[in-house]
Design brief:
By secondary structure, this protein is an all-alpha fold. 76% of the residues lie in helices and 3% in strands. The radius of gyration is 22 Å and the shape is globular.
Length: 307
C-alpha cells in the first residue's frame, strides 16, 4: 500500500469518525431529553433531523471512501453500489432542504411582531413536521432515477463514461432525459441555496437593526451578552455559511468533473468536500448554541449556570 493511500485513509477515517460521533451525540441528546420529559424547542426538531441526515451522508460516503483508500477497491457488487449511491443522493438532498428549513424558520422566528410574517410566525412550529415529511418523500421519489442511471460496469470496461469511484464503479448514461434531470436537480439545489442566502441576509439585517436600537445598552453595560435568540440566530448563520461554503466548492468541482472524465484525486477531493459540512455541523451547533449546554446540565442533574 502506498504512503499516499495510507494518509488518505487516515484523513477520511478521521473526518468520518469525528462527524459521526458529533451527530450521534446530538441525536442521543435529543432522544434522552424526550424520554426524560424535558421540553425541546421547535427548532430542535430540525436540528435532530439534520443530525440524522448528516449521519447518513457520512455513512454512505465517508466509510466507503475510507475503505477504498485503505486498499479495498471495488468491494461492493452492483446492487450494493446502486443502493449506496441512492442513500447518498437522498441524504445529501435532505441535508440541503433541512438546512434551508432551519434558516427559514429562524428568520421567521426573529421577525418583528409588526412585520408581514407575524401571522406565519405564530403557526411556524406546526409546519415543521409536515414540511419535513413532504421533503423526505419528494427526495425519496426524485432519486429513484439513480436505479436507472447506474449500470453494471462489468460489461462496459471500455466506455469513455466509466467512472471509478474506488469502492465501486458506475457508468452514467448521458442521454437527453438525464440531462433534463440534471438541470432539474441543479435548479432545485440553486433554489434552496438562494432561499438560505436570502434568509441569512434578512437575519443579518434584523440583527443589525436590533444592535442599532439597543446600542446605548451596550455602551452602559460593561460585559454585554447577546440574548439567547441572538445567539441562536448567529449559530444558524454560521451553520448556513459553513454549508454554502462546502456546497459551492463541491458543486464547482462536480461541474468540472461532469464536463470531462474525472481523475481519481478529483473525485477524492469532491468526496472530502461533500462530507465536510456533515462533519463540522454538529460542532458548530454545540459550540455556538448555549441551549445544548443547558440540556447537558439538565441531564446530568447539575445547576444550570446563567448563560
Amino acid at each position: 500500500m502506498k504512503a499516499d493511500d495510507i494518509i488518505l485513509g487516515i484523513v477520511f477515517s478521521s473526518q468520518t469518525t469525528v462527524g459521526i460521533l458529533g451527530n450521534t451525540f446530538l441525536i442521543c441528546l435529543f432522544i434522552v431529553m424526550l424520554l426524560t420529559g424535558h421540553r425541546l424547542r421547535p427548532i430542535d426538531t430540525i436540528f435532530a433531523q439534520l443530525a440524522c441526515f448528516n449521519s447518513l451522508l457520512l455513512l454512505s460516503k465517508g466509510i466507503p471512501q475510507t475503505m477504498a483508500a485503505l486498499g479495498l477497491k471495488n468491494f461492493m457488487n452492483d446492487n450494493g453500489c446502486i443502493i449506496l449511491f441512492y442513500i447518498h443522493k437522498v441524504s445529501r438532498g435532505l441535508s440541503l432542504s433541512s438546512t434551508c428549513l432551519l434558516s427559514g424558520f429562524q428568520a421567521i422566528t426573529i421577525c418583528p411582531r409588526g412585520s408581514c410574517w407575524a401571522e406565519v410566525k405564530a403557526r411556524a412550529p406546526k409546519y415543521i413536521m409536515p414540511i419535513s415529511c413532504v421533503s423526505c418523500i419528494t427526495h425519496l421519489l426524485l432519486n429513484i432515477v439513480v436505479f436507472m442511471k447506474i449500470y453494471n460496469l462489468q460489461a462496459s470496461r471500455n466506455s469513455s463514461r466509466l467512472h471509478d469511484f474506488g469502492y465501486c464503479s458506475g457508468i452514467e448514461d448521458t442521454n437527453m432525459d438525464d440531462v433534463r434531470f440534471g438541470v432539474v436537480v441543479s435548479l432545485r439545489d440553486a433554489l434552496f441555496v438562494g432561499l438560505m442566502v436570502f434568509a441569512s441576509g434578512y437575519m443579518i439585517l434584523l440583527l443589525h437593526q436590533h444592535h442599532k436600537q439597543h446600542q446605548h445598552l451596550y455602551v452602559t453595560n460593561l460585559s454585554p451578552r447577546p440574548s439567547p435568540l441572538n445567539r441562536a440566530t448567529q449559530s444558524i448563520l454560521l451553520q448556513v455559511s459553513t454549508f454554502v461554503c462546502f456546497y459551492t466548492l463541491n458543486s464547482i468541482l462536480n461541474s468540472y468533473m461532469y464536463l470531462r472524465k474525472p481523475k481519481l484525486w478529483l473525485m477524492q477531493c469532491s468526496a472530502y468536500l461533500s462530507i465536510g459540512f456533515p462533519t463540522f455541523s454538529p460542532f458548530v451547533m454545540i459550540s455556538s448554541d448555549s441551549q445544548f449546554l443547558k440540556y447537558c446540565h439538565r441531564l446530568w442533574g447539575r445547576k444550570v449556570p446563567h448563560l
